[in-house]
Design brief:
Distance between the termini: 27 Å
Structural class: alpha+beta
Order of helices and strands: EEHHEEEEEHH
Largest sheet: 7 strands, antiparallel
Helix content: 10-25%
Length: 174
């Protein structure tokens, strides 16, 4: 896994890359289909997804809240982006209260190179009570674990045995 993060006062961009031994179509399905998103990101239940620009994907982050993200880009099976208001559980994500999460998929041998980029922290006002879960530092560490969850789930149908993958509801597909 390759990790690139801004340093110093430029903590606005998080970038993670990982090679997944699955086709871009499989990785795309894992990132966008309700049954799969709920497994690697949420609490295991299917996640409502209105897969179109302007649509909403609901992310259930357990004790941290539920987040109605706003889908920005849908270019199967290469690019998917949404806005996420991590500092404001339950509120629709807008340009003023959210970061932009972008997934880019590219063929890599027999698998897929997945790049996740999250931007917009510098302009975001985060309430003090949400800094531990919505800050640049929190998301930088969070994406480090989530790309491993995505990889494991895309390759095996399970998130068990990886950081964050042993939570209730995670596990085998199906």
């Amino acid at each position: 896994m390759t990790e690139t993060s801004a340093t110093g006062t430029e903590r606005d961009r998080i970038e993670k890359e990982i090679v997944i031994e699955a086709s871009p179509e499989r990785v795309w399905a894992v990132l966008t289909e309700p049954v799969h998103v709920g497994k690697w990101f949420g609490q295991g239940d299917p996640t409502p997804v209105d897969l179109r620009p302007g649509g909403t994907m609901f992310l259930d982050h357990g004790e941290f809240g539920q987040f109605p993200t706003t889908i920005v880009t849908v270019e199967p099976p290469r690019r998917f982006a949404y806005r996420w208001a991590a500092a404001y559980p339950g509120e629709p994500a807008t340009e003023g209260n959210s970061t932009l999460v972008e997934f880019t998929l590219a063929p890599a041998g027999n698998g897929t190179l997945l790049r996740v980029v999250e931007t917009g922290f510098a302009a975001l006002s985060i309430p003090a009570r949400r800094r531990d879960t919505a800050s640049y530092e929190s998301h930088d560490g969070g994406w480090a674990g989530q790309v491993v969850n995505i990889k494991n789930y895309a390759e095996t149908g399970s998130t068990e045995g990886v950081p964050g993958g042993d939570r209730p509801g995670a596990g085998t597909d199906g």
